[in-house]
Each structure stands twice: as C-alpha cells, then as structure tokens.
Amino acid sequence: MLGSSLFQGKDLTCIRGGRTVFLGLNFNLAKGQALVLEGPNGSGKSSLIRMLSGLVRPRFGKLVWQEQDATKDPEIFQKHIHYIGHRNAIKPVLTVLENLAYWSGKTKDDPGLEDALDHFRMLPLKHTPANLLSSGQSRRLTLSRLLASERSVWLLDEPSVGLDVASVSLLEEVIKTHRLKGGSVIFATHSPIQVENPDRLNLQDYSPLYNKELLEIENDEESWI
C-alpha cells in the first residue's frame, strides 16, 4: 500500500544548451511507489533524474520534499536520496570494500558494508582493486551503495546496464524489499526490470522538440507515400 506524498515536481522545465528538454512536467512520488521514466533517447530521462538528485536545478517549476519547497535548497532532500547514474563512479585505485566505505561514509569494518557486498555477490572480491573488475562486477559494486546506507528515495539511471540475468534478479529483489519498507524508487531503463504495480511517466509528452517533430511528420504528405 502506498503511503503519503514524499517528493513532488510541479511544472518543471529543463533547458540544456539553449534547448528545452522538457517543460510543464509534474509528478507525485508517494512512499512505497515505483515510478518508471519512459521515452526515447534525448527525451530527458537522465536530465530529470539528475534534477531530482539536486545536481541540476530546474529552470522553472518547483521541487517539493514532504510539502517543503526545496527548489533552491536541494540539500533538504539530497541526504534522503541515493542517485545511481548510468556510469559507475568508481575509484580504480581503491579496493571494492574501500570504494563502498568511501561512498557510504562508513569505516571498512562496518558489518553493513559486507552485507551489502554479499547481497550483490561481491563479497569474495572485497579486497580486489576496482580497476580489475569486469563491467558487470563494477555495476554490482555501484548498486551495493543502495544497501550500504539507508535512503528513502532511489534514483536509478539505467541500473541494469552490464548486468546478467541473475544480477538483474538481485536488483529486483532489493527494489521490492525497499518498497515494502516504505521506500520509493524512480528509474529509467532500456532493459526490462520487473517491479510490482509501477506508475509510468513518459517524458516525450513533455518534450516540445519531440512533439514538434511528430507534428511535422504527420503534416508532411510525402511521409505517407
């Protein structure tokens, strides 16, 4: 069962390089909810996730965290959020365990770190330098951050990239458990991730560029020949 409203976006507009990526975008994320971002490449999925993480500020509109306007002060919600980008932010000179300790702000002897690594089948590699990891192992290390420290909202950009089927199942499991505890998740992915009763937000609906292109195609008589 979904809880009360946690995170909201009201009339959000994102402009990059003079181009309007999306405008007038609204969402309402409740406790326990999963929100899947949809749309073709370039429709703004990654831009929205970065905005919700506080890395990019909206040109117009508001971000509201638990009924508090946090648009100009993203620190209000950043401490409650895990952001996993489509690239792995790994320090190659550190070991697997050292990387996770660095990300979580915990000491290497904290048992929670090994528990997180164990869930993603990375514990046997805890002393391995990160520069020796495969792409799949690097992704599993990155995802271990979700379990190393508790945050109520997970923002995941292509979280399953580089994962095999078994590892995707591990990811699905942690998302399910997170939601059962009242946590929420927003993610964008080109690979299917099975979650129960997700809500969906298609960014193409808020993209003036895509809407304009579609309208031009539909009005072009030659395109129908």
TrEMBL record:
Give the record's GO biological process terms. cytochrome complex assembly
Q: Which domain of life is it from?
A: Bacteria
User: Does the keyword section mention Nucleotide-binding?
Assistant: yes
For the ABC transporter domain, which residue ranges apply?
A: 7-225
User: One short Pfam family name for this protein?
Assistant: ABC_tran
* Matching PROSITE patterns: ABC_TRANSPORTER_1, ABC_TRANSPORTER_2
Segments spanning the bilayer are none
The UniProt GO MF terms for this protein read: ATP binding; ATP hydrolysis activity; transmembrane transporter activity
**Which keywords has UniProt assigned to this entry?**
ATP-binding, Cytochrome c-type biogenesis, Membrane, Nucleotide-binding, Translocase, Transport
SUPFAM superfamilies in the record, alphabetically? P-loop containing nucleoside triphosphate hydrolases
Instruction: Specify the protein name.
Output: ABC transporter domain-containing protein
